[in-house]
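**Paired protein data**
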Amino acid sequence: MSNLPKIAWIGLGIMGSPMAENLLKAGYSVTGFTLEQDKLDRLAAAGGTAAGSIAEAVKDADVIITMVPASPQVEAINYGPEGILENARSGALIIDMSSITPQTSVDLAKNAAEKGIRVIDAPVSGGEAGAIEAVLSIMVGGEQADFDAALPILEALGKVIVLCGPHGSGQTVKAANQLIVAVNIQACAEAVVFLEKSGVNLTAALDVLNGGLAGSTVLTRKKDNFLNRDFKPGFRIDLHHKDMGIVTDAARNVGAALPVGAVVAQLVASLRAQGDGGLDHSALLRAVERLSGAQV
C-alpha cells in the first residue's frame, strides 16, 4: 500500500464521492476536500481523510484528482494563492475529471507545466450508476507518459479508458458524448409519449425496443426513470445544459453543423427555464409531455 501514489480528491459530489470511495477500496490513500461538510464526513467514514482546504489536501499528494461542475470551478480551484497550482509539489499529476471546455483544459496544462506540474483531462461518461459500479468510460487528453502513469488509478474507476489525443481532446470527446446522450434521451422521451398515447404496454415496448437496433445504454439506464417518472438526479439538467453549450460552441469554432443537436440544446434550455434544472436529464420526458398537452 505504501508504494501506491497518495491521492488528493477535490470535489465530492454525486460522481466524486463514489469514485473516491472506489479508490479507497482499491487500496489508495485519499485525502479529500469539498465545500459540503456531509460529503467530507462521508469520505472519512469510508476510510479517507478530510482536509480543511485545497492547500491542505494537495500539499503531499502525488496525484490530484478534480471533479467539479464546470470551467469556472476548475479555474477557481487551480488558480490563486489557495489553489492547486500554488500548493501542489513539483512533479505532481493533476487528473481533471470535470466536464469543461477544451480550451480550459489546454490553458490549465500550459499553466501547470510552468510549475512542473503535469495535467491530463479525463472526463467521464456513465452517470452516477457508472461511478458507483466503477464502470465509467473515461476519455483522456494529454501526454502518453502521463496517461500511462494515471492508468492504474483510472482502472479503479472505469472500464473503457482511452487516450484520445493531446490536451483538451478528452473534453472534445466528452462534448460529443453529451451531444449523443442528449439526442438519444430526447428520442427515447418522444417514443415513450408516442407509445403511451397509443395505448401500448410501455414496459413491454421498451423491453423489445432495447433488444433491437433501437437499444442503447441510455435506454437501459433510463428506462426505469421513464416508466416510474423518477427524475432523482443522476446527471442534472443544469449540467447537461452546460455541456450542450460547450458542444455547440466548440462545433461552431471548428465549422461543424449540429442541426439536431441545436434543437435538443434548446429543449434542454427550455426545461431548465421551466424550473426542472435540478432533475435528472431523463426529465426531458417532461418537456415532451408538455408539448403533447399534458399538465406536468
The CA atoms of residues 6 and 29 lie 5 Å apart. The two ends are 53 Å apart (CA to CA). The longest strand covers residues 158-165.
